[in-house]
Design a protein that fits this description.
- This protein is of the alpha+beta class.
- It has one domain: CBS-domain, CATH 3.10.580.
- A hairpin with a 5-residue loop joins strand 2 and strand 3.
- It is globular.
Length: 140
């Protein structure tokens, strides 16, 4: 049953990260090269402190005509980070995504960042959650 599946079973790992000082253009290139919808922003100690998504790039850079070469990810990242643990059931993760209107959740355990789970990952294994995910404003 899909309600027994945990995020660690479907997450993307290892997660792709960028530093706080990285340029938005570099983050966008990393996302394009890896065919991913987000990068996790880490501080100098490697601790996850934020996330930059395609939506952030559109709403916080392009729509505001900011220079992606000069804009740092720390200035457009979403923070504080909304995340789940590896043993979180995918239903709980889907509800959290819907409630927070987000598409990606970093997966963090006692040792730190271990992966990222997306709404697409969840819907691939549990298409019955589509209505829950669509309830979000703006849809999927």
């Amino acid at each position: 049953m899909s309600e027994e599946i945990t995020v660690k079973e479907i997450m993307s790992s290892p997660p792709i990260t960028v530093s706080l000082e990285e340029s938005v253009i570099r983050a966008a290139k990393i996302m394009a090269e890896n065919k991913i919808g987000c990068v996790i922003v880490v501080n100098d100690d490697g601790k996850p402190v934020g996330i930059v998504t395609r939506r952030d790039l559109v709403e916080k850079v392009l729509a505001k005509a900011k220079d992606p070469l000069r804009t740092k990810v720390k200035d457009v990242m979403s923070s504080p980070l909304v995340y789940v643990g590896p043993n979180t059931p995918i239903l709980e993760a889907a509800k959290l995504m819907s409630r927070k209107d987000i598409r990606h959740l970093p997966v963090i355990d006692v040792n730190g960042l271990i992966g990222v789970v997306s709404d697409r990952d969840i819907l691939t294994v549990a298409p019955e959650y589509i209505e829950l995910m669509i309830v979000r404003k703006g849809g999927i």
